[in-house]
Design brief:
alpha/beta; 180 residues; 8 strands; eight-stranded mixed beta sheet
């Protein structure tokens, strides 16, 4: 799932006009990107509902180590929350499981540690359904993201919405009763 997260984020940056490369070098960040007056490296990881708060800090710590090894030493940590969250997508409240991840990442990013990580981006998918089965059912989803800047970054990055994954999707499905 880490590889899928890397490919997704690579594609997101590429679609936004960045010149992007996936790196396979051991001990180096997953992605290097140039564009929009920014040159950076990104370490991308997937986390699960079962991942504890220590996992978030360890991901940021690893990203920091890897970004330090780059020539520019400018980078971001991208965390994809894997499980889709059933919510009412029309509300703007933060899902509890995401808020816990944001709190942990904020704690790390407000410390004097991990200064090579200029920004941590967390993204996830939410979905809701409307309708009745049998019959038409609408599936609606939204990809949301949240960015946390490091309070004491070695190389602060200007806020760029181009770095934040976002999307919406919707589809109608018709369900029929089936005789068994």
């Amino acid at each position: 799932e880490d590889v899928l997260a890397e490919l997704h984020y690579w594609g997101w940056l590429k679609a936004r006009g960045f010149e992007v490369a996936l790196t396979e070098d051991e001990g180096m960040p997953d992605i290097s990107a140039r564009g929009h007056n920014v040159s950076l490296h990104a370490e991308v990881k997937a986390i699960h509902e079962s991942s504890g708060p220590d996992r978030v800090r360890k991901v940021i710590e690893k990203a920091n180590r890897q970004i330090k090894r780059t020539e520019e030493q400018v980078g971001i940590c991208v965390i994809r929350y894997v499980e889709a969250i059933a919510t009412d997508c029309e509300q703007s409240s933060m899902p509890l499981q995401i808020q816990a991840i944001i709190d942990c990442a904020s704690s790390a990013m407000n410390s004097n540690n991990y200064k090579s990580v200029s920004k941590t981006i967390i993204y996830w998918d939410e979905y809701t359904t409307r309708g009745n089965s049998p019959g038409w059912v609408l599936l609606f989803g939204i990809r949301r993201s949240h960015s946390i800047d490091h309070a004491n970054a070695r190389h602060p990055l200007s806020a760029s919405t181009e770095l934040l994954p976002a999307a919406t999707f919707a589809g109608n499905m018709f369900f029929r009763e089936r005789a068994i």
